[in-house]
Amino acid sequence: xxxxxxxxxxxxxxxxxxxxxxxxxxxxxxxxxxxxxxxxxxxxxxxxxxxxxxxxxxxxxxxxxxxxxxxxxxxxxxxxxxxxxxxxxxxxxxxxxxxxxxxxxxxxxxxxxxxxxxxxxxxxxxxxxxxxxxxxxxxxxxxxxxxxxxxxxxxxxxxxxxxxxxxxxxxxxxxxxxxxxxxxxxxxxxxxxxxxxxxxxxxxxxxxxxxxxxxxxxxxxxxxxxxxxxxxxxxxxxxxxxxxxxxxxxxxx
Length: 253
Ligand code: PGA
What we know:
Layout: E1 6-10, H1 17-30, E2 38-42, H2 45-55, E3 61-64, H3 81-86, E4 91-94, H4 97-102, H5 107-119, E5 123-128, H6 132-136, H7 140-152, H8 157-160, E6 164-167, H9 181-198, H10 201-206, E7 208-212, H11 220-224, E8 231-234, H12 241-248
Parallel strand pairs: 1-2, 1-8, 2-3, 3-4, 4-5, 5-6, 6-7, 7-8
Helix pairs in contact: 1-2, 1-12, 5-7, 7-9
Residues 10, 168, 173-174, 212-215, 233-237 line the site of 2-phosphoglycolic acid.
């Protein structure tokens, strides 16, 4: 089917501007020559512009970790889609479980952010995933379906092609407990089935689905060998060029 693998580093609340620039400098060198894998990094807002400058001329893309849906106005502390475009972002992470868990993000606000991002030509990395409790109670698939439908509500087919989905089981994020490749595969497979049924076959076949949650150089190969996993959203292991570049170079292992 030819979906281009996509590895993105989510730096979360880490790295000063200086450290961020230093990391991408190392990264440019350590992944140079890698072909047929798309790579992006998501520094914090304060480091975006400096990282963008450092990335000029490289194939690494820039992502933001969040955005607000209004273009401007009295919204103290928020960042607009246009502001992110201006500092060189192509992607924006939306609906990460940490936003849902700690900052009151809901399917509705995720949907508003999705529309705002797409309206400004930013590509959403649309995150979803179940908690341990939801998994243990057998609610994984119904939850994923709800998050999927909620986030995509009222979007047009034209917009689908810009979307990347990140399936991140909450119990695997930052815990060292990665889902087994088989576990990690079953939700992306389900997502594709639902997308085909509810939206379109083309969307289902073309959308890239990343797995996220304690991805490391040791487990990336097994994850990437799954039919429905097209990449990874990497937290902890993206903070060092040594580990992140090994993940990006998964084909060479
Ligand atoms: P992790 O984070 O790789 O540190 O588990 C992944 C994420 O939250 O995107």
